[in-house]
Write a structure and sequence with these properties.
Strand content: 5-15%
Cofactor: pyridoxal 5'-phosphate
Helix content: 40-55%
Distance between the termini: 48 Å
Low-confidence stretches: none
Oligomer: single chain
Keywords: Lyase, Pyridoxal phosphate
Protein name: Threonine dehydratase
Organism: Pseudovibrio ascidiaceicola
Radius of gyration: 18 Å
Structural class: alpha/beta
Pfam families: PALP
Largest sheet: 6 strands, mixed
Length: about 325
């Protein structure tokens, strides 16, 4: 199986009765201080609170699940997605998350009935524990970004968006391990629409890989690290990115928090920092569109911690 528009279309047929077709809305001129209007894909309204439900459902529905069930390592959103899909399909799941994970995300994982194991300082630590558990039990491992089924599942958000907003010139997508960006870029690979990867300076595995010519380890230090904090981008996402990602852009944490704040104040949308990262590139000027360029921004996650949201929205 390959990562392609055709495979994404097949994935969409497979998962569409299990996922939400999330809305796409137009911001209106002047919103966020921009002189132009943009299309916002509200994927933070997806089941489990992020786009990752798409990849989780596609992975589970396209594979045989052993008696030992499902194992997954996650910074939070992937774990919630796998737990959600497992619950919907009547399967048991064990989710490994690092200690930096957002407590709200851990609570959400547990709400779907999954067994949660919290250990390690970073995603890589949780991934190592997950791999060991899989070897010991035979549980199937659902990777959050470096798997073909995951990437094709994530790409279904682009299929929906293309139907809702068919005339976009450019799409801005936040990147953690790269599965979402790879899925979106694969869907648009043979179209005029360009896909741009946005990452925080303190969590930039894709940008580092593109500079190095291969995936490399990066240090993680960003407000968005619990969603976008992959220490190394995936091999599959990297291959897609170097062929189909038009540009890689980095943004400061302050710009992410400003985007999160403006989404609430101007559109009453609450997203987590990772979900605001793509918009941060626009409102900070890190990405400057050409005159008349039609822009789409993907709001990828809404599993925000209430304390952080309250502090951000109040300017603290």
């Amino acid at each position: 199986m390959q990562i392609s528009k055709q495979a994404i279309e097949v994935a969409h047929k497979r998962i569409q009765k299990y996922i939400r077709k999330t809305p796409s809305i137009v911001s209106g001129n002047g919103t966020f201080g921009l002189k132009y209007s943009i299309s916002l894909k509200l994927e933070h309204l997806q089941h489990s609170g992020s786009f990752k439900a798409r990849g989780a459902f596609n992975s589970l529905l396209n594979n045989s699940i052993p008696e030992a069930g499902i194992a997954a390592a996650s910074g939070g959103n992937h774990g919630a997605a796998v737990a959600c899909a497992a619950h919907a399909l009547g399967k048991k799941a064990k989710i490994f998350v690092p200690e930096i994970s957002n407590p709200a995300k851990i609570d959400k994982i547990r709400s779907f009935g999954a067994d949660v194991h919290v250990e390690g300082s970073a995603y890589a630590d949780a991934a190592a524990l997950c791999t060991e558990y899989q070897k010991q039990t035979g549980a199937i491992d659902i990777h959050p970004f470096d798997a073909i089924d995951t990437i094709n599942g994530q790409g279904t958000v682009a299929l929906e968006w293309a139907e809702q907003s068919p005339d976009l010139d450019t799409i801005l997508v936040a990147v953690g391990g790269g599965g979402l960006a790879a899925g979106v870029a694969s869907y648009y690979a043979n179209s005029p629409t360009k896909v741009i990867a946005i990452e925080p300076f303190g969590s930039c595995s894709m940008n580092a890989a593109l500079k190095a010519g291969e995936p490399v380890d990066v240090e993680l230090d960003s407000i968005a690290a619990n969603a976008l904090g992959a220490k190394r981008c995936g091999t599959f996402p990297f291959e897609v990115a170097r062929n189909h990602i038009a540009q890689s852009i980095l943004v400061e944490d302050d710009a992410i928090l400003a985007a999160q704040r403006r989404l609430w104040r101007e559109m009453q949308l609450v997203v987590e920092p990772g979900g605001a990262t793509a918009l941060a590139a626009l409102i900070s000027g890190a990405y400057k569109p050409e005159e008349g360029e039609r822009i789409g921004v993907l709001l990828c996650g809404g599993n925000a911690e209430l304390i952080q949201v309250n502090n951000t929205l109040s300017g603290r």
